Amino acid sequence: MARVTDLICYPVKGCAGTSVTDARLMPAGLAHDRSFMVISEDGIFRTQRRHPRLALIRPTISADGTRLTLDSAVSTDPHGTVHLDVTTSAVRRDVDLFGASFRGIDQGDDVAAWLSDALGTPSRLVRVPPEHDRIADGLTPGPSGYADSSAVHLLSRASLAHLNRRMADRGAPPLSMDRFRPNIVVDSHDHKGDADWAALPHAEDRARRISIGSAELGYAKLAVRCAVTIVAQDVGARRGPEPLRTLAGYRRAASGGVVFGAKFSVLTPGKLSVGDEVAVTEWGDAEL
Length: 288
Description:
288 residues; five-stranded mixed beta sheet; globular; 3 helices; eight-stranded mixed beta sheet
């Protein structure tokens, strides 16, 4: 049967992820996922597309979301560590995410100075306000924080293995899962081929309703891939042109772009754990 092999939360959009064994799935995704965002002084979100060193910033957030720590994923980094008490009462400011206007709660000058030093450009940190009411589009619309689109990104190990085989045929080295920054990674538990949907590459494209633990997900859309996938997450630098070059040869969407993995909205919040069975309760046709 298919099971969860990894759960990854990204408290600060664009920064390093945190692997966990258990997580609460909230209406807008894993608890605290993409609940903070780095912005420019004029409110435009920062992304690894232009600032790959974001990958080297490692956030740690307390279970109740009131304490956030940022440090460097590289021990020789000179920027040290910053701790902050998260505020939800500070002034709201306008922020821009892919041209859409939202609001964010500014987290103060200390963390802004730390981020500005780490990234080499003036930056600030904002938190999703409690009144945030963004609804991401897709086949199943749903709430979302500062994620690119839908609340949950799910990817199977079979899909990555298939991509790596195709890349090997081109003489390219394999990539790790962190290039794609999923929230939920699933794998075939017993590897019995067609008897288990997670053993088939890109089966997640066709899953329309998924039950995991006490939670349920509804399919929103395929995950369109961008230049973030060419950033080596362990060094915070671009290492192109893979995987986009290989994906372009067999994963072009009819609507444009290349796709890999699927995005889901939360139908029923609940608790998720590594090892949980992942059951597809409704199937559909792939949009590819």
